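Support request, please re-run this one:
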Amino acid sequence: MNALLRWLLALALLSLAGCATTKAWEREFLARPEMAPDDDPDRNALRQHYLGTREGAVGGFGGGGGGCGCN
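Re-run finished. Output below.
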């Protein structure tokens, strides 16, 4: 029983080690596009390009252009 209690205590301590709190001014840096988990940045850039072309407008992604696709 004592060994089981030790394992449970160790598991609880390890699970708490991954928790972190952030202040409001620290969240600004975590919300930046560079911090977003992205498996393939090139695919994300292509997706933003064709979404902007299809929608006929680009907003908030740093690029300009119209619906014709000739950025």
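DSSP finds three helices and no strands in the chain. The chain has a mean pLDDT of 76.
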